[in-house]
Amino acid sequence: MSNRKDNKRLKPAELDLKEKVVAINRVAKVTKGGRTFGFSAIVVVGNEDGIVGYGLGKAREVNGAITKGIDDAKKNLVHVPVYKGTIPHEQLGKYGAGKVLIKPASDGTGVIAGGAMRAVMELAGIQNVLAKSLGTSNPHNVIKATINALENLRDPMVVAKQRGITLDKVFNG
Q1: DSSP label of 153
Q2: 54-68, 73-87, 89-103, 151-165: lowest mean pLDDT where?
Q3: Which of 61, 148, 155, 164 could disulfide-link 81, Cβ–Cβ 3.0 to 4.6 Å?
Q4: What region does 97 belong to: left with phi over 0, alpha with psi -120 to 50, or beta?
Q5: Residue-wise DSSP of 82-128
Q6: pTM (2 decimals)?
Q7: For 85-126, what is each residue's pLDDT tens digit?
Q8: Is 64 left (phi over 0), alpha (psi -120 to 50) or beta?
């Protein structure tokens, strides 16, 4: 469903990545001697300039789970076309029961998005966007659906080149 691995590999060491913890979940393993607690954390990283990724980390302690999540996110980076601080066109993203709709917005609108989607948009460097979660509110599926929608965006420069027209004609018909 996702083509994260197909994209050109981005080198996390060359990028100035910021991270945001979206959700931390305490999980329990029931054993003969009682419950053993652990933590899972979902983390989003991005350089606020068109590159974003997410990762899941699991460990006995919160800090260990966050560190593992950051390392996983750095392995799953994708490039997002950002045009004048917004996205080039409307896009629907799906992952499992998670469905998200993202729309470009004019200057000064800001990021109109809920919890998990907001983190992805801000770290991708999108300043003006309208976003709506249409399916589940599970942060794992919402983040994956948002990344799916951002991956499926077409870069306006590539579209203009394919059609053999100027960039202004792509947006103004």
Answers
A1: P
A2: 151-165
A3: 155
A4: alpha
A5: -BTTB-SS-EEEEETTEEEEEEE--TT--EE--HHHHHHHHHHT--S
A6: 0.86
A7: 889 889 999 999 999 999 999 988 899 988 889 999 999 999
A8: alpha
